[in-house]
């Protein structure tokens, strides 16, 4: 797939994890800037989803199968927003910790996506 | 997902306006999705989605390749989904059910983990709980322990 995009999503996801992890460490809930960060990561993941589907439509094949590939793309897109919504309902450090965990999950999914596509 | 947490929060807080003292007392324990519990629910949710989709796919497409491994993965998936549900639901009954399931989960991880190490030939493909959940960053073995600690603390 588009390697640059995979690297960009992983890097921003890890940065978001560090940022929100730091907020949790300082006993702070997620704030507007954190949500802006989540939006950036989510937009990148959405771009990846679109690029991935377009490449499949063009007839390219994922090594481990189309179904798994698309499932991981959708999971990668959903991980950070889902954690973000949870943190809206939990205005403590644990909301931040959850977003950090969500971003780590996204980074792991990116590594798997890379394998599944066969890079 | 936000709606669900909102609903849980609502049931937790209505306890204060409850009629009997017993209801008011039960209320604090009713909310399991708060504080560290939120992180726990998130991780259980992720494991549920991962394990459920993985085992559905494997059983639907290549069950004959490793029936034992895929059946064990499916059991793990059901346990994760059930624990996620009980945590979201809240309440004393759900707390006890989740506690029992966490214990079952821990036993499952330890048994399957040891089994996969002792007899790798029985497992042509990995399960969710292979090698104590190494493929999932050991989260499967850490999660039930933290889960049980949290659920014990949530008791009122």
Low-pLDDT segments of chain A:
none
The counted number of beta strands of chain B is 0
Number of domains of chain B: 1
Strand content of chain A: under 5%
The number of distinct structural domains of chain A comes to: 1
The number of helical segments of chain B is 6
**End-to-end span of chain B in angstroms?**
27 Å
Q: How much is the average pLDDT of chain B? A: 82
Distance between the termini of chain A: 8 Å
User: Helicity level of chain B, as a percent range?
Assistant: over 70%
What can be said about the biggest beta sheet of chain A? none
Radius of gyration of chain B: 18 Å
Give a short synopsis of this structure.
The complex is a heterodimer of chains A (119) and B (156). Chain A contains 4 helices and no strands.
How does this structure look, described?
The complex is a heterodimer of chains A (119) and B (156). Chain A has four helices and no strands. Chain A is mainly alpha-helical and 119 residues long. Chain A has one domain. In chain A, α1 packs antiparallel against α4, α2 runs antiparallel to α3 and α3 packs antiparallel against α4. Chain A is elongated. The mean pLDDT of chain A is 95. By secondary structure, chain B is mainly alpha-helical. Chain B has one domain. In chain B, 74% of the residues lie in helices and 0% in strands. The longest helix of chain B is centred in the N-terminal third of the chain and has 27 residues. The two termini of chain B are 27 Å apart. The N terminus of chain B is likely disordered.
Secondary structure: elements and pairs:
The complex is a heterodimer of chains A (119) and B (156).
Chain A: H1 3-25, H2 32-57, H3 66-89, H4 93-117
Helix pairs in contact in A: 1-2, 1-4, 2-3, 3-4
Chain B: H1 2-14, H2 21-30, H3 36-62, H4 67-89, H5 92-118, H6 139-153
Helix pairs in contact in B: 1-2, 3-4, 3-6, 4-5, 5-6
